[in-house]
Amino acid sequence: MPDASVASLFRSMAQGVHQYLAESLRICSVYLGIAVIVTVSMGFALPGLRDQALQVHKALLTALAPSSMQASADIDTGTDLGVDMSSAIAMAIPTAPASNATGMLGPARVAPPPKKPVANTATGPQAEALRNYISRKYKVAYDATGPLLNTVYKASREKQLDPLLVLAVIAIESRYNPLAESHVGAQGLMQVMTSVHQEKFEAVGKNALDPAANIGVGTTILRDCINRRGSVDGGLACYVGSTGPDDNGYGAKVQAERRRLALASGIALARD
């Protein structure tokens, strides 16, 4: 009789262990199945997102680029980036949201324009390095960076601004998203306050989401801000809408990205 009790006890223990192992195996199988499903889904989803970004880029390029644009006029020719290139810009839309609103001008304290010209040229290797840096860091379609940089250099030459400063402002404001819009109404690459500067867009017959027009108006505002405040740092505070020197670190962010652009491309920073 005691032997039968022991045998029954061992059978019960064996059944318990078997059930525990079976339940553990079932749970592991469920998690493994979920992992396989997620992996397969990611494999299908990521190429789809990439294709969607390319389609957006092609659509913008088709809509904005005039038929007269010549492939030979791209940035990688190593020529002066300030030449009068096509002002059309197209780019894949990044996922990052727009930053803060800009373009609120403070009290006028007009300073004289700069006495020395601002460098607006880059060598072929420098231009290529700049193009690669922007394309890689901000997920901008590589083919779009040529028209983008030429437009920035042209506008910067006209407004006597350092192109790297303008590119840094665009990076901080919109991360190169031409359709960015903030909750307070700032729009486009340079996050211009459309309600404040609508007449500037009307003067060129464009809206704030037109990339070339946005850069043109944005650089005009930035130049005016620098003239009013008497320095680049003061102008950046003005551009972000600060009525005093405290801009919550905005100017420091722009200047830091400006230095990164210079370092990545090998282009010397212009003296402010």
From TrEMBL:
Keyword 4Fe-4S (UniProt): no
Domain Transglycosylase SLT residue range list: 153-240
Enzyme class of the recorded protein, top EC level: lyase
EC number: 4.2.2.-
One family name in Pfam for this protein: SLT
GO MF: lyase activity
Source organism, top-level taxon: Bacteria
Keywords: Lyase, Membrane, Transmembrane, Transmembrane helix
Transmembrane intervals: 30-49
Name this protein carries in UniProt: Membrane-bound lytic murein transglycosylase C
Gene name of this polypeptide: mltC
